[in-house]
UniProtKB/TrEMBL annotation:
Ligase is among the record's keywords: yes
UniProt family annotation: Belongs to the GARS family.
Name listed for the protein in its UniProt record: Phosphoribosylamine--glycine ligase
Top-rank EC class of the record's enzyme: ligase
Catalytic activity: 5-phospho-beta-D-ribosylamine + glycine + ATP = N(1)-(5-phospho-beta-D-ribosyl)glycinamide + ADP + phosphate + H(+)
Gene3D superfamilies named in the record: 3.40.50.20, ATP-grasp fold, A domain, ATP-grasp fold, B domain, Phosphoribosylglycinamide synthetase, C-terminal domain
Keyword Cell cycle (UniProt): no
Pathway: Purine metabolism; IMP biosynthesis via de novo pathway; N(1)-(5-phospho-D-ribosyl)glycinamide from 5-phospho-alpha-D-ribose 1-diphosphate: step 2/2
EC number(s) on file: 6.3.4.13
Alphabetized GO MF terms: phosphoribosylamine-glycine ligase activity
PROSITE patterns according to UniProt: ATP_GRASP (PS50975), GARS (PS00184)
Domain ATP-grasp: 107-313
Species of the source: Komagataeibacter medellinensis
Required co-factors: Mg(2+); Mn(2+)
């Protein structure tokens, strides 16, 4: 099977590593990829949201299966374009990808399907939004309605913080078009976990779960990010609980999407809060998470490519997902200044030394090679240092030992990834 994997982040590096192990694979192309994926296949310099360019590449390389990694190509219609070109694609249509592309759409689907989620209101102008938070009070969650690369959510603990978020998004335009409309929700309380499943029509097959660490600083302080680390499996959310959450939060959504004439086929990522009243949906994403994918996929023992091919065919009856019984952890190394203006251009050394620690794997995201062949940082989240072990405590020690061996003066990271799960495990 000739495969085109779309994307350039740590998620795509981890996916490429899993796909490269498949006996079904004949050739792997990654567009645009990064220096890490280049060791697993052939990178092609086509941007992830360049749908026409990706289709042209797929035709040129006689691709059998397109696998979109990030959300941008899905929301831009890559699956629809593949269908028109007669190329299989393991991702949802543009209409179904609105589950991630629009917070309002997700809330409307939840209300129609009876899926438990926070009470919400949508606003298209700053004035009414400000009036609402002043009368409603805090805490509230302010969400940009559109895609904002993981930076469009502010959990406001005070009215002033909510006002600032609304002003930033709707008046100052800090998130561009994504923040021209906002959804304001009641703030759910509990442990947040990420649940993943392969979906086709009304069928959902459990992949697994992880727990992300969103905020930039130790102790869950500072602004939200795209994710600073993850553990898998989450403490207190076992296989039975994950299946029950699929029944409550995912399968009703799939039935509603079929009813609407926009069936969902692909990977669903349900961000949910484990509240005292039971699991409630925070949001849907239409792809694997980052850094959750890195933590999940280093535990994967079954064939990812076979599962994704089944997704593309819309037949999950024989899909088999199998993980090791080990624990895993992913710790993100970001560039100093992230999530604001990250410092770029710094040279990163000693990844090979980091991976010499037993169980450690380093996945690259915001990296490139300079003219001298040095690995340099080009973005916000740059590396994900991952580790597996028989206990979460051991995996955590290994991951941080790997980080200690990496020479990158501009790198920053949280020192407490996994600590909350360790405390819960006792």
């Amino acid at each position: 099977m000739r495969v085109l994997l779309v994307g350039s982040g740590g998620r795509e590096h981890a996916m490429a590593a899993a796909i490269a192990r498949s006996p079904l694979l004949d050739a792997l192309f990654i567009a645009p990829g990064n220096p890490g994926t280049a060791a697993l296949g052939t990178n092609r310099a086509v941007k992830a949201d360049d749908v026409a360019g990706l289709i042209a590449l797929a035709r040129r390389e006689r691709i059998d299966l397109v696998i979109p990694g990030p959300e941008a190509p899905l929301v831009a219609g890559i699956a629809d374009a593949c269908a028109q070109a007669g190329i299989a694609c393991a991702g949802p249509t543009q209409a179904a990808a609105a589950l991630e592309g629009s917070k309002t759409f997700t809330k409307e689907v939840c209300d129609a399907a009876g899926i438990p989620t926070a009470r919400w209101e949508r606003f298209d102008a700053a004035g009414p939004a400000l009036d609402y938070v002043r009368s409603h009070g805090a805490p509230v969650v302010v969400k940009a309605d559109g895609l904002a690369a993981g930076k469009g959510v502010v959990v406001a603990q005070s009215v002033a913080e909510a006002e600032q978020a609304i002003t930033d998004m709707m008046t100052d335009g800090t998130l561009g078009q994504a923040g021209q409309s906002v959804v304001i929700e009641d703030c759910l309380v509990g442990d947040e976990v990420s649940l993943f499943a392969f979906c086709a029509g009304e069928t959902a097959v459990l992949i697994g779960a992880a727990q992300d660490h969103k905020r930039i600083g130790d102790g869950d302080t500072g602004p939200n990010t795209g994710g600073m680390g993850a553990v898998s499996p989450p403490a207190g959310f076992d296989h039975a609980a994950q299946e029950a959450a699929l029944d409550l939060l995912v399968r009703p959504m799939l039935r509603e999407m079929v009813r609407r004439g926009t069936p969902f086929t692909g990977i669903i990522f349900a961000g949910l809060m484990l509240t005292q009243a039971g699991p409630q949906l925070i949001e849907y994403n239409v792809r694997l998470g980052d850094p959750e994918a890195q933590a999940l996929l280093i535990r994967l023992e079954s064939d990812l490519l076979a599962a994704l091919a089944a997704v593309a065919k819309g037949d999950l009856t024989r899909t088999n997902i199998r993980f090791s019984n080990q624990f895993s952890i992913s710790v993100v190394m970001a560039a100093r200044g992230y999530p604001g203006r990250p410092v770029t251009g710094g040279i990163i050394r000693n990844i090979t030394q980091a991976e010499s620690v037993p169980g450690v794997r380093v996945f690259q995201a915001g990296t490139t090679l300079d003219d001298a062949g040095n690995l340099v940082a080009t973005g916000g989240r740059v590396l994900a240092v991952c580790a597996t072990a028989d206990t979460l405590a051991s995996a955590r020690v290994r991951a941080y030992e790997g980080i200690a061996r990496i020479d990158w003066p501009d790198g920053i990271y949280r020192h407490d990834i996994g600590q909350r799960a360790l405390d819960a495990l006792g």
